[in-house]
Amino acid sequence: MNMAIASGAALSLGQAQAAADALAAVLPTGAPLTPLLHTGEAFAGRTGNAVVASFVGAVSADLAVVLLEAPALVDDGADGAPVVALQDVLQPALESASDTFGAGVLDDARVEDAAELFSDPSATVFELTGPAGVAGWFAVRGRGSLDRPAPTSAIAGKLARISNVEMALTVEIGRTRMAVRDVLSMEPGAVIELDRSAGSPADVLLNGRLIAHGEIVVVDQDYAVRITKILDAAEELD
């Protein structure tokens, strides 16, 4: 899914600010960053190493974030390659920003030049400021309307075009948060405690979005999941 070339429908300032606040809250930077509206006539930031992603849902949007200093995990390892790719480190922050738009799907983040997005008059650009000043920038551009959803027949026609597209379905039995030092110190036999008790339903996610709950079963010696509840859009956002 590539970033749109044409100018998009502008998001309200409130929508853009909510997305920027959500992104800044989970950016993996050493110090917390505050998004401030960029009021200059033209954006002059470095956009060649921007991490961008596109969101499709009730409203569609393009998002891009640039950090002047890469997070620690992106530093080169012993073999000269990054420990973790920049787009993988910033994907959760972009997901947090896109969550403010409601139900939808965010594609995988990628690194590319986002000069077109940052210079688009319909995009809203924020300076990500920290104790030492500007640490990066965030841009968001709407490509849909929250007020005038497409007719049901039009939506059905568009969905028919992608009905054969394969998507990743994931079953999640729990989560936890760990410090990087604890992850690096793991060895075979280590036990990781999850945030869910035994017997609790598993989450079923489509491309990272929660769509259902189920229970783990065994079918012909293979693990499977029996769906117990399908979530609608409102429940998915709770």
Strand and helix layout:
Blueprint: H1 13-26, E1 34-37, E2 50-57, E3 61-67, H2 86-99, E4 104-106, E5 110-112, H3 115-119, E6 124-130, E7 133-142, H4 152-161, E8 169-172, H5 180-184, E9 202-206, E10 209-219, E11 222-230, H6 233-237
Antiparallel strand pairs: 1-6, 2-3, 2-4, 2-5, 3-7, 6-7, 8-9, 9-10, 10-11
Helix pairs in contact: 1-2
Could you explain the architecture of this structure?
Residues 161-231 form the Flagellar motor switch protein FliN-like C-terminal domain. Pfam families: FliMN_C. With 238 residues, the protein is α+β, with helices and mostly antiparallel strands. The chain has two domains: 13-142, Chemotaxis protein chec (3-Layer(aba) Sandwich), CATH 3.40.1550; 167-237, Surface presentation of antigens (SPOA) (Roll). It has six helices and eleven strands. It has helices spanning 13-26, 86-99, 115-119, 152-161, 180-184, 233-237, and strands spanning 34-37, 50-57, 61-67, 104-106, 110-112, 124-130, 133-142, 169-172, 202-206, 209-219, 222-230. The strands form two sheets. Strands 1, 2, 3, 4, 5, 6 and 7 form a seven-stranded antiparallel β-sheet that branches. Helix 1 packs across helix 2 (86-99). The chain is globular, with a radius of gyration of 20 Å.
